[in-house]
Design a protein that fits this description.
The chain is of the alpha+beta class. It contains eleven helices and twelve strands.
Amino acid sequence: MYHSFGMSLQQVVTQSFVDRYGQSPVCVVRAPGRVNLIGEHTDYNDGFVLPMAIDRSAWIALRPRADSKVVATSLDFEETREFELGSLQDGLGQPKAEGWIEYLKGTAWALQDAGLRLSGWEGIVAGDVPIGAGLSSSAALEIATARAFVALSGAEWQAGPMALLAQKAENRWVGVNCGIMDQLISAAAVEGCALLIDCRSLATTPTPLPPAAAVVVLDTATRRGLVDSAYNERRAQCQAAAKHFGVKALRDVSSAQLAGHASELDPTTLKRARHVVSENERTLAAAAAMRRGDAKALGHLMDQSHESLRLDFEVTNEALNVMVARARSTNGCLGARMTGAGFGGCAVALVAENAAEAFVRQVSAGYAEATNLPVQAYVCRPAAGAWVAP
């Protein structure tokens, strides 16, 4: 593992590049992780999500090669891996078992499959987005990789199309049927704002946090593997519900319609659909609350979201429920919920800004006492999307 000794991660990858190659990198790219404030499991239902990029990212320092080989050294995994751009023929959705390099390979495959001409490069990769925590470390790595290829090509960076190609890599190369949210917020985030994303049209609306409110990410120290989890099962259940209503996706079903036809669905499918339909409505209400600066209303909607995810979508675990309960009972908390796909990972809390530091200390101590698990908490600032460092 690398040691930063007070350096920023940008400085770490740059210095590591110099140490390895004897010269400065031609460019350094960055793509952020994200925390989703509200709108969970709605993205693959063509619905609405409200994520914000966080000030934790994947970084790549690199230079071009004369051949078509990509050689990448991961500081996090302490290994060097390589692949030939001309050999990436398998995009059939079979989960790969070769770790972090598959996100680079899958992104390269998706870009080439879309007709982009790529050139080889060599570089240093590192990140500080916690892996498996529901903060989109994989999307950050995919978007950083796409940013690197585009930077070397001299082409214009187009956040929406690049996010779609990175999503394709995750879906068909890695084998996770994620929606567009993670890749799009990493590619297109606006500093200082969350983004309301319409996952059907890919329209994005920058939405500022309410004044005097802070976002705190609370890591439960429990992890899930999306490929092996019930994520794909939940997606299939949602598709079955949409098919029953004769619509493309559950985004097209209202709460009134669902209530009127509830008896026609089996109990499990009904619960899954009820979460998605109500979560879309909560997400639009949350964006409206943020626009009018109503932190209390936003926090209340976050509380409702967690209960829906716990009872109807059934993707929380005991650790997440304990963390959310601890957060809600702590002074300064306006609302809290699990964030990410679930089954472990992180919770997110909206907290009065002047109480954030005390909140972190108290929740961390209370959670550790209740679970005997370590806890990490981050007060996160809304960061910009992928960019090439100046």
